[in-house]
Amino acid sequence: HGTKNWQTAKKQKKEVMEFLDENVKVFKDLYKLLNIDYDNFIRTTDEKNHYPGAIKLWEELVKSGDIYKKKYQGLYCTGCEAFKTEKELVNGKCPEHPTREIETVEEENYFFKLSKYKDQVIEKIKTDKYKVVPEIRKNEILSFLENAKDISFSRPKTTLPWGIPVPGDDSQNMYVWCDALSNYITGIGYGTDQERFKKHWPADCHVIGKDILRFHAAFWPAMLISAEIPLPKNLFVHGWVLSKGTKMGKSTGNVIEPFEQINKYRTDQFRFYILSSMPKDGDGEYSEKLVQQKLNTELAGNFSNFCYRVLSFTEKNYSSEIKNIDEDDVITEITAKFDEIKKAYEEYDLKKAIELIFAVSALGNQYFQKKEPWKNKESSQDVLGTCVNLAKNLSILLQPIMPEASKNLQKQLNLKDLNWDDLNFELKNHKIGKPEILFKKVK
Q1: In total, how many domains does the chain have?
Q2: Its pTM surpasses 0.85
């Protein structure tokens, strides 16, 4: 729902559901191409599974005395689907949607008492009971909450002709806050299956982009407190993928077409680049020059090079078998990094996790080069045992980033279904499978 989709569908001379169905297909196709699974693809137009929960949430807010009606005049950005203050505009335009006209809207709406709950939300964020990550976003939302005002919670049907009707007032439709934000709980049974809802809520981690921070770190927790629903435990706020140093947009002509790029570089490579280029507390840059440089240096030159030279050497010189391991200091050095990598994953710092993993791969290359097993093949089988164990560990460490490459590597190792508990150097008396080059250089 929302004004933006309604207006865009009208502009394209399409029924709004036809327009939305086309968009949904794009997202589903993209998830499939990126090897991303989901339990439930939630659509807020779902009258059976979503409407009852959104209505229930509205009614709970009414019970708490937090919904009231008043006349209002404000500056409205259809791109953000939010009212703006003069201070938030740059040269009279929304900085996030500079090509859209700001509308002056005067109407009678229902409002939610955000101001009533701002101090409670501030306390929960400050004490990490509701943990907002990274710190820069935590500070940003705390600053916003200091002066948070009540928010418009509905639109007249004359302005927004479609949506979920406000309970008890057919002249108004719910605005996006109670409608769209509630999908996080209606998707797991709120309003339709309370037993299932209680089983899955609160969420361990809620992931959003930085441009919708205030809606999710101010409006949403205040609504949940009002309705006496537990808050998610963590909110991870990621940055943008930039192109030519700026946010992508049709007007700036710097849009990257994801389907074309994924098909060109393949899924695991695309996932690797995006996740390795995004700092936890900032934005990442996407350009084909950077993609090719990182794929060639890290994937082909470091990781793939190490795995193939180790496995092919083992196949050629030891009939694909390892017996024991070489008790070298490199094992202690690498094992110490496992906890660092785990910590980076747990703290949502995927860029750091990837850097640490590829540092492990680089140590493997250095160790192999230092030991020079090709000079004394008869006494070097244990060196290859250590290297094969290291390749096994890399297949586990990289699994969340590149699942297909990890699966392929484990197949080459004649192993499968490894998990974090298998991070060790205990693989001995084992015969590997057929070596293959995991990643070749791209041009």
Answers
A1: 2
A2: yes
Residue 375 lies in a domain: yes
| Residue 258, domain member (yes or no) | no
Q: DSSP state, 251?
A: T
Same domain, 274 and 229: no
**Strands 103-112 and 151-152, sheet pairing:** antiparallel
Residues 126, 11: Cα–Cα separation, whole Å: 44
Please report whether residue 244 resides in a domain: no
Task: Determine how β-strand 154-156 pairs with β-strand 169-174.
Answer: antiparallel
Q: Are residues 184 and 283 in the same domain?
A: no
- The whole domain housing 9 covers 3-238
For the CA atoms of 298, 300, 306, 312, what is the dihedral angle to 10 degrees?
170
By the 8 A CB rule, do 57 and 191 touch?
Answer: yes
Query: Does 253 fall in a domain?
Result: no
**pLDDT by residue (tens digit) across 171-196?**
999 998 999 999 999 999 999 999 99
Q: What is the pLDDT of residues 124-161, one digit of tens each?
A: 999 999 999 999 999 999 999 999 999 999 999 988 88
287 and 220 share a domain? no
Q: Which residues of 368-402 are buried (b: 16+ CB within 10 A; e: fewer)?
A: beebebeeeeeebbbbbbbbbbbbbbbbbbbbebb
DSSP letter string, 264-284: HH-HHHHHHHHHHS--TTS-E
